[in-house]
Amino acid sequence: MPVCGGGSNDLPLLGGAPGGGGGRVLRLNVSVAVIYARIRYQVASLNRQWVVSDHTVTAGGPWGLGAAKGSRYKVRCLREVVPMTEKLDIYDVLGSLIPGVLLVCWIPVCFPSILGEFSPLGTSEAISVIAFLAAAIFAGQVVQAVGSIVERPLFWTWGGEPSARALQDGLGRRYLPQDAAIRIKAKLSAAVGSTATDRSLFLYAMQCTDSAGVGRAPRFNSLYAYHRALFVLVLMMAVMWLVSAKWGAVAEWPVLRVKIAGFGALGLMLLVWYRAKQRAFYYVREVMLTAEKVLDDRASARPSSK
C-alpha cells in the first residue's frame, strides 16, 4: 500500500514548506501522517536498508489533505532497497520495551527519593526522554535475562518442561492429547532413530518447523518470551514493593491499603504465571503439529519403491 509517491515501499520522513494555499492545515496533516507512518513501520524498518528520495504530492490526492486543491508539497521518503532475511516480530521489541518502561516507572513509586537525585542535573526534555528510553530498554533486557535464569524453576511449577511432557504424556486434552503425542513421537523417532532422547526429538521437530517456514511457531515463541517477561516483571515489582514496605514509600501506607495491594499483586502474579504457561504449551503444540505435517509431506513426496 503506497505511503507516499514513488513506490509502495516508501516511508515518509520529513516535510518541507507548502507551495500553495492552506499551508498550515497541510503542514499539520502531513506532520501527523509522518508521525503515524514512522511509528507504524518502526519495527519493520529495524532490519531493512533504506535510501532517501524526494517526492512531490498534490493536495486532494491519496494523502487526503485539507489544503486547496492543486497545492504541491515536497515529502522526503525512505525507500527500501535491500530487504534483510527476516522481519523483526513486534513482540521481540515489546517483550523488552514494555517491561522495561513499567519497571523504570515503578522504581520512583516505591522509592520517590530517587527522583531527587536526578533533579539537579537540569537536562533538557529531549535528553531526558532519550535517557528514559535507554534506561527502559536496558531494564527490559535485564528482565529478559532474569526470565532465562528462572525458566527452569518456572517449568517445575508447571509440572516439568513442556517439550518433555508433550513427548511423554501429552499436554492434556486442551493442548495436546496423549494419543497425538504418541503418534507424533513415533514419526519423529522413525526419522531420527529409536535411541534418540526426548530432547533430541523436540530439537529435530524445531529444525523441521524452522526449515519449512510454515506454521506459527515463531510467533508463539515470541508470545511465550513476552509473557515470561511479564511474569518476571511482576515478580521483581513485588520484591521492590516488599523492600519499599520496610524502607520506602510503602512504609507510610495504611495497613489496609498494604494488604489490598498485596492480595492484588498475588492475583496478578498468578494471572501472568498462567498466561506464560499457556503460551509455552501452545508453542510446543505448534512445533510438534507442524513437524508432523512436514514429515508427512516429505513421506508423500518420496517416490514409492516397487
Which band does the percent of strand residues land in? 5-15%
Q: Domains counted in the coordinates: how many?
A: 2
Cα gyration radius (Å): 26 Å
- Structural shape: elongated
Distance between the termini: 52 Å
Structural class assignment: mainly alpha
Low-confidence residue ranges: 1-36, 43-53, 57-69, 77-87
Describe the structure.
The protein is built from eleven helices and three strands. It is mainly alpha-helical. The chain has two domains: 10-83, no CATH class; 90-301, no CATH class. Strands 1-3-2 form a three-stranded antiparallel β-sheet. Helix 8 (178-192) crosses helix 11 (255-301) and helix 10 runs antiparallel to helix 11 (255-301).
What are the key terms here?
306 residues; mainly alpha; 11 helices; 3 strands; disordered N terminus
Layout of secondary structure:
Elements: E1 10-15, H1 23-40, H2 42-45, E2 48-58, E3 72-83, H3 90-110, H4 113-118, H5 125-149, H6 151-157, H7 162-168, H8 178-192, H9 198-212, H10 217-247, H11 255-301
Antiparallel strand pairs: 1-3, 2-3
Quickly describe the structure.
Helices cover 64% and strands 9% of the residues.
